[in-house]
Design goal:
Blueprint (H helix, E strand, L loop, with lengths): L1 H21 L5 E6 L5 E6 L4 E5 L5 E5 L7 E4 L10 E7 L6 E5 L3 E8 L5 E3 L12 E3 L8 E3 L18 E3 L17 E3 L7 H10 L11 E2 L3 E4 L4 E2 L5 E2 L2 E2 L1 E6 L12 E4 L2 E4 L3 E8 L10 E9 L4 E3 L4 E3 L4 E2 L3 E3 L9 E6 L6 E3 L2 E3 L4 E14 L2 E12 L6 H5 L3 E3 L6 E5 L5 E7 L5 E11 L1 E5 L6 E9 L2 E9 L1
Parallel strand pairs: 7-9, 8-10, 9-11, 11-12, 12-13, 14-23, 15-23, 25-32
Antiparallel strand pairs: 1-6, 1-8, 2-5, 2-7, 3-4, 3-6, 16-21, 17-18, 19-22, 20-21, 22-23, 24-27, 26-30, 28-31, 29-30, 31-32, 33-34, 34-37, 35-36, 35-38, 38-39
Length: 477
């Protein structure tokens, strides 16, 4: 007897549980509008009531007009704190269904709880781009028309939209578009970011692809370095027909790149010159009104290989200017940012490119070049600098502070440095020939020479001191 009662109880639970599972909730549409005066057009079942919660504490009730009586419903938000307007549209009974909705300036849209809807238009009528950051069309199996133009939409899932015939997605930012589960007859998705490999299955599915508009796609930018192949192999062939590739110079007018600037091999393009490019691609098996083609920007840079000529010694308490030569000479990015890796016992700090130290020892400095190895890839190199105590002169640093003026000059040159004794000066022309030589019997930190008799041009002045020699360039007017 007890067993029979338990069995009946289980059957009852399953029966009522199944009824609850299959019950249909009232249809609901959730929409966020970026405006102080939110409005939309909607078609609801004739004579059935629905509510609109405007998200600012205001809830209004409306009665559906039925097809084709689309109702224009609007509201004004009194307080800017409620903008964007988070709106919830809900049928008052299960008999109230929504078949049509139009709205502009949409941030978010969710029709997953409105399975009866057949027509959705979220396009921006002003053609101002609006970022549609969230879109939910799950359960919309009856949807036949969808228009989302000028919305900067980055992704879309229409797998549940099995009745969808007309698709308008012009001027968004889609890089993926799958219409395989739909019965699409029209697809307008021009000015997106769709590669040919995404467009081919779309145009192949449409009964009249020549009527579709899917032209001028700007695909995501590729970053690379010279002589490193860029993989376009997924775009090289469709339906047995090879894709036409044409690299263009990427800045200014669209000028075809010189053939010496690149090599194309089996869908891989290798660029031999550092500069911005755009790769134009077109395949004759992908058709549509006004043609179907894509552009892929490619930033090609010459990477940094090393930094040389960085100072190796410094004097404690005397600021040292950090400099370096970036190799190769034609590296795309050469701006060095200096930082301390390990100050050791030197108390080292860096301000801009000046190294300040307080005591002797060794300091490790880091040279960083943004984008030095390619876009978004930095180049880093460490250098060890010996810091000598105050009173010990470093010839390299001392000699670099010799001054020669005026430069350019019409005649006399002044050569001086208060802490060094100058004993000889030689002047060379650009061919290395000595054109003037002065040997001083009295050692001094200041000397004057006259080059007024020399021809105009560039010369090199070699200064001999008690600490070594240095060469500096001067111009004779």
């Amino acid at each position: 007897m007890k067993s029979n009662t338990t069995f009946k109880l289980i059957i009852s639970i399953l029966f009522f549980g199944n009824m609850c599972f299959n019950c249909i909730a009232n249809e609901t549409i959730r929409i966020t509008l970026q405006t102080m005066s939110p409005s939309f057009h909607i078609i609801a079942t004739l004579g059935e009531q629905f509510t609109v919660d405007w998200g600012d504490g205001t809830v209004e009730t409306f009665t559906g007009n039925g097809y084709p009586g689309a109702q224009s419903i609007s509201h004004y938000l009194q307080n800017p704190v409620f903008c964007p307007a988070n709106i919830v549209i809900t049928g008052c009974t299960t008999d109230c269904i929504f078949s049509y909705l139009w709205a502009s300036l949409v941030n978010k849209f969710d029709a997953s709880e409105a399975p009866s809807i057949t027509y959705i238009d979220l396009s921006n009528i002003t053609h101002d781009y609006m970022i549609l950051s969230y879109l939910n069309l799950s359960n919309c199996s009856l949807l036949e028309f969808l228009s989302i133009d000028y919305c900067s939409l980055k992704d879309i899932d229409i797998q549940d939209c099995i009745s969808l015939k007309t698709i308008h997605l012009t001027r968004n930012k889609l890089s993926v578009l799958d219409i395989s589960s739909t019965v699409a007859e029209w697809c307008h998705a021009a000015y997106n970011c769709l590669p040919l490999s995404q467009l081919y299955p779309i145009t192949s599915k449409l009964p009249h692809p020549e009527w579709s508009y899917n032209y001028k796609q700007l695909v995501a930018t590729q970053n690379t370095t010279i002589n490193k192949p860029v993989d376009f192999s997924s775009e090289k062939e469709f339906g047995g027909r090879a894709t036409f590739f044409l690299p263009l110079y990427g800045s200014g007018p669209q000028i075809p790149a010189l053939e010496s600037d690149y090599t194309i091999n089996d869908g891989f393009i290798t660029f031999h010159t550092a500069r911005p490019y755009k790769v134009y691609m077109e395949n004759q098996n992908i058709i549509g009104a006004d043609g179907v083609y894509t552009f892929t920007p490619v930033n090609v840079v010459a990477p940094v290989q090393e930094i040389i000529n960085v100072p190796t010694t410094a004097i404690a308490t005397i600021p040292l200017t950090l400099t370096g030569t970036v190799m190769p000479i034609d590296a795309s990015f050469k701006i060095i940012t200096w930082s301390i890796e390990d100050a050791g016992t030197t108390g080292a700090t860096i301000t801009s490119n000046k190294l300040y130290t307080t005591a002797e020892g060794y300091v490790i400095v880091t040279a960083t070049i943004k984008n030095g190895l390619g876009i978004d890839s930095i180049y880093i190199q460490n250098f060890t600098i010996e810091v000598k105590p105050v009173g010990i002169n470093d010839p390299t640093q001392e000699l670099s502070n010799i001054t020669i003026y005026p430069n350019p000059t019409n005649g006399e040159l002044e050569i001086e440095y208060k802490n060094l004794l100058i004993n000889k000066i030689e002047v060379f022309d650009i061919k290395g020939k000595i054109v003037l030589s002065s040997l001083f019997n009295i050692l001094s930190a200041h000397h004057r020479i006259n080059i007024s008799n020399l021809n105009s041009g560039n010369y090199f002045v070699k200064v001999f001191t008690t600490q070594g020699e240095i060469v500096k360039k001067v111009v004779k007017l």
